[in-house]
Design a protein that fits this description.
This protein is mostly helical. It has a domain of 80 residues. It has six helices and no strands.
Length: 125
């Protein structure tokens, strides 16, 4: 996996202060958890495409995207499952499944969450 992150700006500065050399590693963790969450939601409703790119690649070259049944189904599925506003419990469960398979992720996730809370308290003070 290749990860590219902004090197400048307030977010990059804060992440470097909190995470130091683990900034890239933490970004990978975030992406893995986010991907697991999305894939689980789509799988739960029986949808066979894991990504919008897979759906796009499966369409005929000159498909009428507005009326293409698979596109219509994809959009309906996202609305039905509230894909863009996932429920916290579903997200937590998907993350628990991924973290359960990889003890390193749990340690990093816990560490970063603790650092974030500490930083938030410091900013409020």
């Amino acid at each position: 996996m290749q990860v590219s992150l902004p090197a400048h700006g307030c977010v990059a500065y804060a992440e470097n202060r909190l995470l130091g050399g683990k900034r890239v590693s933490w970004s990978e963790v975030r992406m893995q958890l986010g991907d697991a969450e999305k894939q689980r939601r789509m799988k739960d409703v029986g949808y066979s495409f894991n990504t919008p790119i897979q759906l796009r690649d499966a369409l005929p070259r000159k498909a009428d995207i507005i009326n293409e049944p698979r596109v219509v189904s994809d959009i309906a599925c996202k609305r039905k499952t509230d894909h863009l506003n996932l429920a916290d419990e579903d997200r937590a469960q998907a993350q628990r499944e991924v973290v359960g398979d990889n003890g390193r992720l749990l340690a990093e996730w816990t560490s970063v969450r603790r650092q974030k809370r500490t930083a938030e308290r410091g900013l409020k003070a």
